[in-house]
Specification:
Rossmann fold, alpha/beta, binds nicotinamide-adenine-dinucleotide, single chain, 7-stranded parallel β-sheet
Length: 273
């Protein structure tokens, strides 16, 4: 899609980090925005930063199907169309696979996988029906390409988000749709991802284990040294213009993916630290 000005973008997880940067970049492109998040104060701040852009905000827990349906109803009802859908909201939790409780997986799967699936289910049929160009951007992660030690639960959800993105893109292509898909797979980005627990519902909180604390600290350090969210937003806008599917924030991940595939094909475990 070459022209973004005058079109409509939806961004989930828009109260912070990558979602806020996407919102501000789309606003600068002249788009109208529907911004969703569970963080009321952060959403209001993003809206204030968006300047003169037309901005609607909606408190939305993306793991809740009825909340995402309400978001879509408001968006199509008040803005008429949707051209860019960013299923971006996500949370991190680490720890060894065997120390994670059902509540840990339920929280991660709810936000990182169901959030994407609900977004697809509620928005894509209406985007197909409106019969215009459009683009769906699912925020995955390099964790959707490489399962590293101590972050298995997160990798499970991000591999699923990548599969959902690939399957959606294949279905749209097979049916001759005008819609395109990107799977955004950033490495470390300077956001609050290491502090994801701030939005965790109390009913899903578990006692921290030492391996989980180590993992959280290491992700926070990595994020601190990561690229700026605005660089990710620039990459996304270029990908929408150029209709690119897989978005990597550094060429080193392409080399690593090649090496991982070759190693797997020998029957061995990739050493990817
Ligand atoms: N920061 C990184 O290094 C990095 C790397 C790869 C991928 N990602 C992915 O980028 C996406 C954005 O994360 P970020 O890095 O900007 O982190 P962030 O914590 O700064 O922002 C995440 C946003 O999601 C919101 N959120 C959490 N649970 C929600 C829910 N149930 N419903 C709606 N919104 C919810 C939070 O309130 C927050 O505003 C996530 O999908 C994350 O997995 C981040």
């Amino acid at each position: 899609m070459r022209e973004l000005s005058g079109k409509v973008a939806v961004v989930t997880g828009a109260a912070s980090g990558i979602g806020r940067a996407l919102a501000l970049r789309f606003a600068a492109e002249g788009m109208a925005l529907m911004l969703a998040d569970v963080d009321h104060g952060g959403l209001a701040r993003t809206a204030a930063l968006a300047g003169d852009a037309k901005v609607l905000t909606q408190i939305t827990d993306v793991s809740d199907a009825s909340a995402v349906r309400h978001l879509a109803n408001r968006c199509f009802g008040e803005l008429g169309t949707v051209h860019v859908l960013c299923n971006n909201a996500g949370v991190f939790q680490g720890g060894h696979m065997w120390t994670r409780a059902a509540e840990d997986f339920a929280w991660l799967l709810g936000v990182n996988v169901w959030g994407v699936l609900h977004g697809i289910h509620e928005f894509v049929p209406r985007m197909i029906e409106q019969d215009t160009e459009g683009h769906i951007v699912n925020t995955v992660s390099v964790a959707g390409l490489f399962a590293t030690p101590g972050a298995g639960g997160y990798a499970v959800t991000k591999y699923a988000a990548l599969a959902a993105s690939l399957a959606l893109a294949q279905d749209l292509a097979a049916t001759g749709s005008k819609l395109r898909v990107s799977a955004l797979c950033p490495g470390a980005v300077r956001t609050r991802i290491g502090d994801s627990d701030r939005t965790r519902p109390p009913s899903m909180v578990t006692d921290p284990t030492p391996d989980e604390v180590d993992s959280r600290e290491s992700v926070s350090r990595a994020a601190e040294g990561g690229i700026e969210p605005s660089e990710v937003a620039d990459l996304v806008v270029t990908a929408i213009h150029e209709e690119r599917f897989l978005l990597l924030t550094d060429p080193k991940y392409a080399a690593r993916l090649r090496l991982q595939t070759e190693t797997l094909l020998t029957g061995h475990l990739p050493g990817i630290r």
